[in-house]
Design a protein that fits this description.
Blueprint: H1 3-21, H2 33-50, H3 54-65, H4 68-95, E1 105-106, E2 119-120
Antiparallel strand pairs: 1-2
Helix pairs in contact: 2-4, 3-4
């Protein structure tokens, strides 16, 4: 099998995997521990691999809020910072998947609320049982 064909198969499999992971499911009291851990690990992996999309997202959003010059310069800077933040958050979620904590980065995925700026919440807050 040629290298080009292997890369195409790998890229296709990665796209399918990310699309399957993109369904944002809120963990509630009926979710099992395994589902919560699996969702957190997939969320972390997805955020690590798609974090670079923060750059065009922030350039577009900053340009829409101000002007093209500030959008490119300021949006690029903001995008690089948010890329590092989303990658770090994804790595942390992936490593700490066995600990059921709340979502740290909002929106959970880069494509959720694309017009909304990425924000970061309190770190390592345990999920509380819903009563």
């Amino acid at each position: 099998m040629r290298l080009h064909t292997k890369l195409s198969i790998f890229k296709s499999a990665l796209v399918v995997f990310l699309l399957l992971c993109s369904v944002s499911v809120q963990a509630d009291e009926e979710d099992s521990y395994g589902e919560i851990v699996g969702h957190k690990a997939l969320n972390g992996f997805t955020n690590m691999t798609t974090a670079v999309l923060e750059i065009p997202k922030n350039i577009i959003n900053t340009t829409n809020e101000s002007n093209i010059f500030y959008g490119v310069v300021g949006g690029l800077s903001k995008g690089i910072i948010n890329t590092l933040g989303r990658m770090t958050s994804g790595l942390t979620d992936f490593i700490t998947a066995p600990i059921p904590t709340k979502q740290f980065v909002h929106p959970a995925y880069i494509w959720d609320d694309f017009d909304q700026d990425t924000t970061y919440g309190k770190v390592f807050r345990l999920k509380k049982e819903q009563q």
